[in-house]
Structures are given as C-alpha cells and as structure tokens.
Design goal:
230 residues; mainly alpha
C-alpha cells in the first residue's frame, strides 16, 4: 500500500522577505508608540522583531525610513495594504449623492485609520523639533493627506453636495482639522470619547459645515421647527 504524502510548499524568498518586513514594521510601531522616536533604537526594534539588527538596517537603512514605513502600514493596513482612495468605502463616499452618507463614510473610515496612525503622527511631530530629517517625513505624509482630503472635497463639489459659497481649500482645511490626528487624540484619549461618539459628532459637525443641505439627519430642534405641531 502506497501512502502519498502531500508536499508542504515552503514560502518563497519573496514571501519570506515580505514577512520579515511586516514583522519589523510591527515591532517598530510598538517601539515608536511606547518610546517615541528618540527613545526607540534599531537594536530594540530588532529584539522585539526577533531578527538581527543588521537585518533591520538592510531592509530599512535608517530609523526615519522605518518610521515612514510604519505610518504607511498604519494608513493602508498591513495584511492587504491599499491606499484609502482605492478602498471600496472611498468609491462609495465619492459617488453617492447623499451628502450625509458621504461625510459619514469618510469620517468613520478615516477614524479607523487614525486609531492606528494618530499616535505615530504625534511621535513624528515631537521628533521634528530636534531632528531635521524628520521634517521630511512630516512633509511627505502631509502632502499625501492634503491631496487625499482635497480629492474627497472635489468629489463632494462634483456631486453637487458642497456648499456653493465654500472655497474647496477652506473645506479641505476643515477636514484636515476635524478629521486629523490632533483632535482625534484630544477627544478619544484625553477626553476619553468612544470612537463612535467621535465619529457621530464629527459627521454632524462636518455635514453642517460642508454640505449645501445635509440629508436625512435633522436635529430635534430642526424637526420641531419643521413641524410646529410636535
């Protein structure tokens, strides 16, 4: 009787390299969050990742490059990284003609991203005061964020949802502020707001600020004015 043993396919060199890269990024993210930029060392990252420190340097070369990679992973996800603009929720948010729904989708999904990335943004900002190299990291990610938020605002305008008298640049500034790391951390960490409370408040606030006529969500006082018999 012959027993055929199924072969277990070993990971390819590319798969092993990708797995090592993810492991290093995960370790670096934890080190940056707990120790800040200057308190984090490549040796500490290597120890947490279970690899040689030379491996960390070979893959990322510098600590600043590793911090950039950690932020990218936080924004796009680790397992199947995808820029927000290519995600299904983005396509719906920029195509729906329901203004409130468009804002809700944007805020809810960006809040999920901020729950992973906002602390790293704070690390970068703190490090930039003493390390000129980090200024480039800030500029890089700020440029990406501004372009992303502006493209969402332009979609609102193209769908006839943005207030007619609102400059798209001003609308983008509102988004960058209210759906940015600072206010997110201030409310969810310092003021201990649950994320769903943050998203609900931010959605309602931005609907009022951005939309020509917010749809589907009247406040109690607005409902009363609309129906005096209530």
């Amino acid at each position: 009787m012959h027993i055929v043993m199924s072969e277990v396919k070993s990971p390819s060199r590319r798969e092993r390299a990708a797995r090592t890269r993810r492991t290093i990024i995960q370790a670096a993210t934890q080190e940056f969050r707990t120790g800040g930029y200057h308190g984090t060392t490549m040796a500490g990252i290597a120890k947490r990742a279970g690899v040689a420190v030379q491996t960390v340097y070979f893959v990322f070369h510098t600590k600043a490059a590793l911090l950039t990679a950690a932020i990218d992973a936080a924004v796009m996800g680790e397992d199947e990284p995808v820029p927000p603009e290519l995600a299904p929720w983005w396509r719906e948010a920029t195509s729906t003609t329901d203004g409130h729904r468009a804002v809700e989708l944007f805020v809810t999904n960006v809040a999920t991203i901020l729950s992973r990335s906002a602390t790293l943004d704070r690390v970068v900002l703190a490090a930039s005061t003493t390390d000129p190299e980090i200024s480039g990291v800030i500029a890089h990610h700020d440029k990406l964020r501004v372009a992303s938020y502006r493209s969402y605002v332009d979609a609102l305008a193209a769908n006839g949802l943005l207030r007619d008298n609102l400059d798209p640049r001003e609308a983008t500034d509102m988004l960058l502020t209210l759906v940015g790391s600072d206010i997110f951390l201030n409310l969810t960490e310092q003021r201990a707001w649950p994320i769903d409370k943050y998203t609900a408040w931010t959605t309602e606030t931005l609907s009022t600020l951005l939309l020509e006529r917010p749809t589907g969500h009247l406040t109690a006082s607005a409902e009363t004015r609309a129906d005096p018999q209530r």
